[in-house]
Amino acid sequence: MGAPTENSPDVATAKGPPEDPTKDATPDKSKCRDQALTDEEADACTPLQLGVWRVLLPKEPASKYKRVRSAMDKWSAVALAYPLVLRFLLEIYSLDPRMFILVVVLKLWDGMESVLLLYVSSRLLQIIEVGLREGRPDVNAITQAIIARLICVTFTATTTWAREYISPIFQSRIQRHFEDYLLQAKLRLDIPTSSDSSSKTKASAYDAWSSFEGLCEAAQRAFGLTSQLLFISQQKSGGPLFTTIAVVRPLLALAGSHSLWMKPHVLYSDNEAYLRLLSLESMSGTYYRGDVIAANIAGWITSQYHQAIDALGSVTSRHAWEQYGIERTPASNIISALAGQLPTLYWAINAMLNPATFSMASIAIMQQYSTSLNYALQMLFWDVRQVGKYVTDIKVLYEAAEIQNQIVDGTVEYPRPANEADTSKGMDIELRNVSFAYPGDKAKENALRDVSLRIPAGSLAVIVGANGGGKSTIIKLLARMYDVAPGSGAVVIDGLPIQDYTLASLRQAYALLAQDHRLYPLPLAENIGLGYPEKVDDREMVMQAARDGGAAELLSKFKDGVETNLEPVTTAYGYQLDDDKHKTLKTVLGKLEKTTEVSGGEKQRLVSSRTFMRFQTGKVKLLCVDEPSSALDPKGEFELFERLRAARAGKTLLFVTHRFGHLTKHADIIICMKAGKVAELGTHQELMALDGEYASLYNVQAQAFTAPEVAASG
Ligand SMILES: Nc1ncnc2c1ncn2[C@@H]1O[C@H](COP(=O)(O)OP(=O)(O)OP(=O)(O)O)[C@@H](O)[C@H]1O
Hints:
Pfam families: ABC_tran
Bound molecules: adenosine-5'-triphosphate
Shape: elongated
Strand content: 5-15%
Number of strands: 13
Mean pLDDT: 84
GO molecular function: ABC-type oligopeptide transporter activity; ATP binding; ATP hydrolysis activity
Largest sheet: 6 strands, mixed
Keywords: ATP-binding, Hydrolase, Nucleotide-binding
Helix content: 55-70%
InterPro entries: AAA+_ATPase (IPR003593), ABC_transporter-like_ATP-bd (IPR003439), P-loop_NTPase (IPR027417), Type_1_exporter (IPR039421)
Protein name: P-loop containing nucleoside triphosphate hydrolase protein
């Protein structure tokens, strides 16, 4: 992104007079079309500009009738989801029936207690009123009312405590249950499905709890409001007319309330000056520290930052959620405030028409009723509006287990019986006219273009070529991390299309060693042992794998040996720690946060050991090695390749590398890739004789050792 220019619409606005935050909050279709939206997308959205923020809302139907229909459709969808909600509630009930009932009863009681408090308070006020009027307080009645109020308050405090005490326990039960369910749902997803942004993998166990709590809350509010309405409408100081008047204000407030928070929307900033500010600000963080210091660009960052501030001018960056609710005129605020005075007006008119009913207690009671109803209604509307979200969350939760993987499982077990395919030497691989583009890829050219090649069982094949040539993509297709689209060629394994085999059996026969493998946040023994999960606890096998992978020496460096967890999950968190006053706490926090660092090469050795552990299954028929040696020293690299070659019996070996030497010398077949195509194919001698792409890549590296000055210094 370049610096803001005069032509940038946002920057141009920024230089104008201070702007009314809601001024731009009008549909602005032309601007929407200016952005990176297709015509179809622009037609489906209503864009708003709120300061630096651009908000895209789904288009509402134009006519009022259609809007009402659309709202009704939304609610009928919520209503139709009741079997799912019932399933959800029954599932939670079955986790702990007693606790479920307790939580629900306590919630409903919460709704009732405001009515009880209203009753006791109004009773007390009436007794005091009578006492004042007669000049002689009814001590008995006052005592009784106060005792009743104290009991009521104590009971309320106890139930509140019980709710607070029980809720976290039940929340943990519910979350653990759904975490377990989601863990399984997510673990079964393949790479294209889990990276698909539209997939339902965003379900969370916390949402399960909050949906349950929210549904209980909505039920409690509805229960509470109904009991209040019934109670107040039957009181002398209340009555049906008063009740109706008292709910006018909250109803008006509801009709006039605009909250972006509750609406489906997409929010982003398209203000170049603001985006530049964010980028520059992020460069002050620890992530860029080293680069910023080395390049000595602190001064440049500061000056660019000031320029971006000037360019932003007075355009507000206050969050769009806060800006959205601001009205353009005070009209609705005034109407709502006046509506809030209706109960007082009612009381005043009533007092004038029926002076006998006039009393200080009655006005206090009315005020109480009206405040209580106002609050109960607002809370009910708030919670009921959320019900749609809870129902959606519950749907998403259950859909997580039903997501169809994009990689469809086959039916044939690998390896096939010996009479159908001989796999004793390893896996036989063929790519027939394969073209492949990554899902959602924006590149002009496919990652692979009409690639045909054959790697006979037991061969040592090496793929070389320039960056982005498609080398790793071939390996990913062989692991069925992705599938070739129908009609774009075929990957054939031992004579059958790769899709025919069951994924589990195929992956057992496959070992992948790549440069970007991660260490799991588990002890090293498990990190290595998980190459062969069934034998993960067999320390002898793990140590053998560590020796083969070149990690044995490294393991002996750690106090806890193979039990060391290099990257444990950290939960330590410090809050409000002062550098001077809380030195000890800071030291403790520092220790808790500390992870053990190992070098890139050492990490690679641990990951390589996992591959050697996998060899011990005896089922590996294809070993794919994708540049695992970039972090290794030359000796480590040589030893790794030698040990991998030594373990090649019964396996096809496929290496991706940029380094010519040990591997290319031993290769039965070299595949030279360029821009997604097979540029050349053959042995080292054959390709050198061609004097093409391979020879040119080889010569660049060879020159470094044969150039005259090197030869002279040697
Ligand atoms: N996950 C992905 N999504 C989209 N495009 C990708 C993805 N992975 C790779 N590509 C693109 O596919 C093309 C081939 O990538 P590939 O990783 O196979 O190249 P390579 O030959 O292994 O490169 P290198 O030598 O740099 O590792 C590149 O243009 C790359 O940008």
